[in-house]
Design brief:
elongated, binds uridine-diphosphate-N-acetylglucosamine, alpha/beta, four-stranded mixed sheet, 24 strands, 14 helices
């Protein structure tokens, strides 16, 4: 198992370049299955989750080349419509191949996604939408089998019960080759949805409305190959902003789109952090006097649930009492006990956390339970007195490219260590 050892208390300084967005590239890679040729994707971050999606595409028969940050996927080579239990368990977002497989081949078979550390995360909205488009869906022997009668889905009107990101993406991808017009209302509005629309339209799809709550898709007969560069990762950018704030640092964030981060930027400014748009980047300047604020996670453009743990780490050292309401995932407070080990004063009641700010946190041994919880603990460690050891950092590797290298570039003292047992075996 690998761990981080972090010596806290060093103000971050310098500049950091944000990588391509994990949550944009995963649906784009799934959508490349729809192409009749080779798709080229640039700014693909070197992440564990992206590696898993590559394995899913290869399992389905695609040939995939990944060189540096460019990935080439040959979507004409698909030879299977089934994703194994093994790959579905590795990453829930593997379910994003459901829509493309079903619409292109008239059938798809996916192992049922298991539980998840941050909540139950069902797929009912994806499946209900596909059924509205005419798919016959059966759940048996741990698999979801979907078949489009006559080999083609029918365009239809779908109203999502909740603006689920994954369901919106799966249904957009399913609709691009369906017969006729599909209207998805109460759709998710995240920048990654707009990005998927842009990518699919470059391939020849006819989609409009992404970024609003109604998306319209006119089905076409086929999609061709294209080249695309992925948008920057707004959650990675927000994580570095929070790291700068907790260390009272002064950093410049390069390759970030501040328009995608308005809720996070507004909250940080309310806390007293200075955020200034400069030529080529965003400057973040910490303060000695972090103010307590209340945060409610909401679908975009609200405050992202993927930034909740990191902001909690910062609020643990704010002046005053803050309240965080987690409205997206029912179980996303796993970092609380670990932050408490570092001296944070946090009480949780259902989906509400009450955080009484302390003067400082103290370094100790903590364990990352999931991706963003891991990022939050690293941030807490950067701001804490003495050394913090963050265990299970494979979670952080799922979603942050070169995390410790980027932090070291900003002056942080952080190293990765690999635990060996007495035999010397890793
Ligand atoms: C995506 C992001 C994830 C982010 C989340 C919310 C990717 C790869 N992942 O996940 O980082 O935290 O959006 O912004 O983009 N739900 C249902 N039924 C469904 C689908 C979802 O009840 O069929 C519920 C979920 O349990 C959850 C909520 O809807 O409570 C939000 O989930 P969703 O927006 O679908 O998240 P993901 O697409 O899984």
């Amino acid at each position: 198992m690998e761990k981080y050892i972090i010596m806290g208390g060093i103000p971050l300084s310098g500049s950091v370049k944000i990588s391509g967005a994990k949550n944009a590239v995963l649906p784009i890679l799934a959508a490349s299955l729809l192409s009749s040729g080779v798709t080229t994707i640039n700014d693909v971050p070197r992440l564990k989750d992206v590696q898993v999606m590559k394995e899913v595409l290869e399992f389905l028969g695609c040939s995939v080349e990944w060189s540096g940050t460019t990935m080439k996927i040959d979507g004409s080579k698909v030879s299977s419509i089934e994703v194994s239990d093994f790959l579905m368990r590795k990453m829930r977002a593997s379910n994003l191949v459901m829509g493309p497989l079903l619409t292109k081949f008239g059938m798809a078979k996916l192992s049922f996604p298991g539980g998840c550390a941050i909540g139950s995360r069902p797929m009912d909205l994806h499946l209900k939408g596909l059924a509205t488009m005419g798919a016959k869906i059966e759940e048996r022997f741990g698999f979801i089998e979907a078949v489009a009668p006559g080999g083609r889905l029918e365009g239809s009107e779908i109203c999502l019960d909740f603006p689920s990101v994954g369901a919106t993406e799966n249904l957009m991808m399913a609709a691009v080759l369906a017969k006729g017009k599909t209207v998805i209302s109460n759709a998710a509005k995240e920048p990654e949805i707009v990005e998927l629309q842009n990518f699919l339209n470059k391939m020849g799809a006819k989609i409009s409305g992404a970024g609003t709550d109604v998306i319209t898709v006119i089905g076409v007969d086929g999609l061709s190959s294209t080249e695309h560069t992925v948008i920057p990762d707004r959650i990675e950018a927000g994580t570095f902003m929070t790291a700068a704030a907790i260390t009272k640092g002064n950093i410049k964030i390069l390759n970030a789109n501040i328009r995608h981060m308005e809720a996070v930027v507004a909250k940080l400014r309310e806390m007293g952090v200075k955020i200034i748009e400069e030529a080529g980047g965003i400057r973040v300047i910490g303060t000695d006097n972090i103010k307590a604020v209340d945060v409610k996670t909401m679908p975009y453009p609200g405050f992202p649930t993927d930034m909740q743990p990191q902001i909690m780490a910062l609020l643990a050292v704010a002046h005053g009492t803050s309240i965080i309401s987690e409205n997206i995932f029912e179980n996303r407070f796993k970092h609380v006990d670990e932050l408490r080990r570092m001296g944070a004063d946090i009480k949780v009641e259902g989906r509400i956390a009450v955080i009484k700010g302390k003067r400082s946190l103290s370094g100790t041994f903590v364990n990352a339970s999931d991706l963003r919880a891991g990022a939050a603990l690293a941030i807490a460690g950067l701001g804490a007195e003495d050394a913090t050891i963050v265990d299970s950092i494979y979670h952080i590797d799922r979603g942050y490219e070169n995390f410790e290298q980027k932090l070291r570039g900003l002056g942080a003292k952080i190293i990765r260590v690999t635990e060996t047992n007495r035999t010397g075996i890793k």
